[in-house]
Amino acid sequence: MTRTDADIILSGSEANATLADRNTHATRVAGKGADPEKKALFASVTKRIDYSPKFGTELHGVKLAELSEQQSEELAAFIAERGVVFFRNQEDLDYKQQSKLGSRWGPLHVHPLVPHNQENPEVIVLDSRLSPQSRFNTNDTWHSDISFEPAPASFSILKFETIPESGGDTAWSNGYDLYDSLSPNLQKFLEGLTATHTSEIFRTLQRVTGRQTFGKLNDSSHPVIRTNPITGWKAVYVNPVFTREIDNVTESESKWILEYLGDLIAKRLQYQVRFRWEPHSVAIWDNRSTHHTGVPDFRPYHRRGIRVTVSGEIPYFDPNSGTQAEAYKVTAAAIVAKQEAAEKAKTEANAGGQPAKTA
Ligand SMILES: [Fe+2]
């Protein structure tokens, strides 16, 4: 009997077929209980650039390859608070150290379909030449990494070594802020719901290309509003790539809810930050409370990078969770106080420099 291409692919994948089936969930919450002031981490920070008051921060002075255990814990907590944190000039962070950093935060995820190195199956190469722009390119639409898994990603660590001469930014959207923007009635309604996330897009890709799989392509049901276990804040957790339907509502209601939330994720600039990559830049984000997308505007330039993805806990919703909006009141008050102090100092300096008024 003649072996077909499909036979060859299937026999070739047998040896590796269970790699992704070994994926498991985190048994501890990295970053929970870290020093709220993050003194160890900030001891090495030379400059902090907040992209907006609530979301996204660039830290200078930190060498990710040399973080202590304590600094990694504080960084995990800081990423959960800021959603996404950016670093420049991380030449020293090779893929093994990238994996080591991720493994401090939880089990590293082996992707069921994205090709990977057999010795380090958790390391994914994102190469624009290997993933042509198509409807199967999940990186170019808003999503949260591997949300179809029973234990989806807590953190993703992405480093680009080759970047386009222009274009190719990545954008993130703040799921905490999105939740906080909803009316209390809609918040309450969504809090009672779960949604089914599927690997359908990868199943289709596998069917069309015959590409090898490394384990089961999972489907999972997760809360629509998810509690971040580090911050304890609520965030919207559905995305246009992997969320197929809202459970236990009609098909048209599900469509409406997903379209509405998907529109908020994609179209509201006030919830978003955008990162311009440089060679050896690194972005680390918390997938539990953010969504992200590549900006597909750079081809034919080449982009190549490495991603390591950390499996988190089984997603849950705790009705007693707090919100970023509540926590932000403290931040906002501090910003107002700082502004007022600066304005007062300026007024006093101006008054001191003026010639004395004569009656
Ligand atoms: Fe992604």
TrEMBL record:
Entry's Gene Ontology molecular function annotations: 2-oxoglutarate-dependent dioxygenase activity; metal ion binding
Domain of life, source organism: Eukaryota
Pfam families attached to this UniProt entry: TauD (PF02668)
UniProt keyword terms in alphabetical order: Dioxygenase, Iron, Metal-binding, Oxidoreductase
Ranges of residues in domain TauD/TfdA-like: 51-308
Alphabetical list of Gene3D superfamilies matching this protein: Clavaminate synthase-like (3.60.130.10)
GO CC terms of this entry: cytoplasm
Family under the similarity heading: Belongs to the TfdA dioxygenase family.
Name under which the protein is recorded: TauD/TfdA-like domain-containing protein
Organism, scientific name: Actinomortierella ambigua
Higher taxonomy: Eukaryota, Fungi, Fungi incertae sedis, Mucoromycota, Mortierellomycotina
